[in-house]
Amino acid sequence: MKKRRPAVDLGRVVDGRDESEGQELYRIGEVADRLDVSTRTLRYYEELGLAEPSSYTAGGSRRYTKADIVRLVRIRELQAVMGFDLEEIADILAAEDSLGELQREYQGDVSAERRAQIIIEVAERNARTQEQVVRKFATLQAFLADLEASADEHRSFAAEYHITLPQTCTPTFQI
């Protein structure tokens, strides 16, 4: 079993600073190691448009900022925790990016009519993202129900044959 790595250390300088913005930069290998993915995975995310490094060296090496790493962590969370596939993640990230742009626009000098449009658009995007989560949750609930039905069958079979199931056969966490 692969040992889990600690949380991403965003405070360590790996390869100098981005001279244009003064931001710390991280090499692709360092980012991949910290996220427990391959460098190929990071390149694949870039190919799909999910996440891109903020800059490249003169030799073409990728350099990531803290903000880039935060986005990559978000992608991994959506995969691991929520079970979304990369297409679903692309939709969620696009909605989140759009929400950020709309928020900046809302805070700017816009008409009351445009502010109303922005609020409606934000609410619609939020509703679509909630629908994605609800669908995923429903799938997980159905899977859990199947597991519970299977466990009931195991308990019945054990009772029929006078087998005492150990505590390890009962989940310790209940919803």
Description:
Helix 4 (86-107) packs antiparallel against helix 5. The protein has helices at 28-35, 39-48, 66-80, 86-107, 112-160, and strands spanning 17-18, 23-24, 26-27, 55-56, 62-64. Residues 1-15 have low confidence and may be disordered. The protein is flat. Strands 3-5-4 form a three-stranded antiparallel sheet. It has a two-stranded antiparallel ribbon with strand order 1-2. The protein contains five helices and five strands; from the N terminus they run βββααββααα. It folds into two domains: 9-81, Orthogonal Bundle (Multidrug-efflux Transporter Regulator, Chain: A, Domain 2), CATH 1.10.1660.10; 82-161, no CATH class. A hairpin with a 5-residue loop joins strand 4 (55-56) and strand 5. By secondary structure, it is mainly alpha-helical. 10% of the residues are buried.
Core attributes:
flat; three-stranded antiparallel beta sheet; mainly alpha; Multidrug-efflux Transporter Regulator, Chain: A, Domain 2; two-stranded antiparallel sheet; 175 residues; 5 strands
Element string (H = helix, E = strand): EEEHHEEHHH
> SS-based structural class?
mainly alpha
Number of spatially distinct domains: 2
Strand content: 5-15%
- The tally of strands reads 5
